[in-house]
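Issue: copy button drops trailing tokens. Both records pasted manually instead:
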Amino acid sequence: MKKKKIAFFVKQGLDNFLKDIIEGLRDQYEVKKIIVLDYKQINEEMSSADICWFEWCDELIGYASKLKMASFKKIIVRLHSYEAFTGYIYDVKWENVNKIIFVSEHLRDIVLNKVKNLDKLKTEIISNGIDLEKFKYADRGSGFNVAYVGYINFKKGPMLLMHAFKAIADIDSRYKLYIAGEFQEERYVLYFNQMISEMGLQNRVIYSGWQKNLDSWLNDKNYILCTSLLESQNVSVMQAMSKGIKPLIHNFVGAKTIYPKKYVWSSIDECTKMVKDKEYNSREYRSYIENGFSRNTEKDKILKLFNQLLIEEDSSKNISDYLKKVNLKGGNKFKDIKTLTLITKRNLHEAKINTENTIIANEGDIILPYMDEFNENTLNYLNKDYVMVAPRYVFNLNDKNQIFNYYDRNFYKDAPAAYVLKTFFTTGEMSCMNLGSIYRTKEILNNSTNEAFEGALDYIMLSRVFSKALNKKVKITEEYAYFRKVKQIEKDKRSILLQLISLTVSGYYCVKNNIVSFKDAKQTILDRGKLVEKINGCGYEYSKLIVKCLSKEISEEDFIKEVLKENIAELPSEFSKLRKFL
């Protein structure tokens, strides 16, 4: 099978962040990096590429987005940091861009606040990944060598750097500042020379210049100091942390959305307290990078993004064919086979269910065959290696029965249940996976929950079903499709809390089966709470409350008292089981 072609467009000298990404993609894609010296190169290479990646939001994407072919090409832009404060962001024809990658959340917020026609749904947060194999870990402790890595310019806070180190040097005469980088302007050279003399820091500030082997240079360092005004994430700090070096990070714009608060200082007094503090945990610093900022994490997110874009491309072709065959007046044609449709509230008496297979549908929704007749052999997949059969498409209809958007679940085609379970937990999303899906009826009976969890019924049930069939797969079929009318429902506090509590169900099965660690499970719940808060105005406090209970900082009884305030009468049984992993 011919590999899809990915074209990376970048200006000369600005491809540092691309090298490892490109190497990591060569196995799966035909990859080409284009150092653009002439706009003609963009015209030529875009025409043959399946996905066009523009590194930096600069004049290259400004030009490319206005080309006629841009309207039907798959285009990704990665915005790092400086571009957010330039006119480039206003010069892009954003409707022709499929995805905008930001390396941090705060930069996305800054740009979205400025560019009103930029759709947030097109944005992705993918941090720069750290190659952990290049930075050797070692257990360390307090010492006297402070490292600074990077240019010395106005963005890096050069005056604060000198004053912060002076305060550290006053603690003990053995402290030294080692600088790996260079001055970008002569005025900073003059300032540093003057202040080193005035502060009596001669022989205590050592210039090492740019390092070809930063890993080796960092070996004898005890602290990594950052005094920046704003960063996307500060890769050099993360590289040092991956070696087990303690970070001293100035509270730059966005710092606390990237790093734990205990690594961040807002005043020079706070900085010196962090140095004097005896707490030094190399394993913790390394783990923080391993769990969220590794090169593998970055690669996985990029591959997922590519897959989505390429699937969408196939889908757009398939759907036009699909709609030629669909007759919305056809009704639910599954009644002829031995299945039962359950409506959302599950208000059918389970004792009366005696069919072999069950299709899950909402009341009033429509299930239609794609082919002239539904192939009953599809149900035989449930007797083999598959845990469920799901239609590839769920179409959303407006009041006029017009399709205005849809879910494409082909991403889960033949995926192991363990993988899908992990995805449900780490994203908190299930792509309406239950709608129109067919199960063995006994699976519904054995894993459904009661109406106390309305709003999270599908999520809980599906997590339980998948947990008992981790090695089975998901069958995605195009033999039929699911149509539903969608109304915008504003989520109240109860439904938000219930959804966050339901995360503990999938979280429990992920931890139990060593799919994620207990520590990562807690962090996932916190991260989901932050995201829900941004969308709905609340959620983060609930997620912190859940994590406190899971960590046994508060009792389960006290937690139940809190959730009772939102009329949630009980907890899923998995909640208590997850607490026991502490």
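Record 2 (pasted manually too):
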Amino acid sequence: MDDSSTQSKINLSTALPCPRNVAIFTYQPLDASGSLRLLKVQPDTLDGFLQIELEEITDSTPYHCLSYMWGDQTTRFPIRLNGQAAHVGKNLYNFLKVAKRRFPGEAFWIDSLCINQADDHEKSSQVQRMGSIYRDATDVIIWFG
């Protein structure tokens, strides 16, 4: 496999700017077939960006699932994902701001960030597991925006 099939960069073509000198987030392939990524919203960075920590897990870490409408993806909002530049749509951005206040330090599974959307193999594998991902969650949060 070449690097383009295992690592993907977030599309920045329709994004609001991130600060200079910040690397663009690159997904690393999942190590184990039963693993998944979870995220936690951290306190904002000094420059005011939402800070998200994304981590691969294979154990029974408790987490919330988010079910939400992706909405319009033409305008993207900058965040820091593991300290690197990334962008999310407006609806998810608004949820992440609320999650930072209401669920500090708690883990989430959010498909658009926890699945490498540019890797068809990973996306297919994770989509097949979505039933168990939602079933194993502590709860499912439905967000309309």
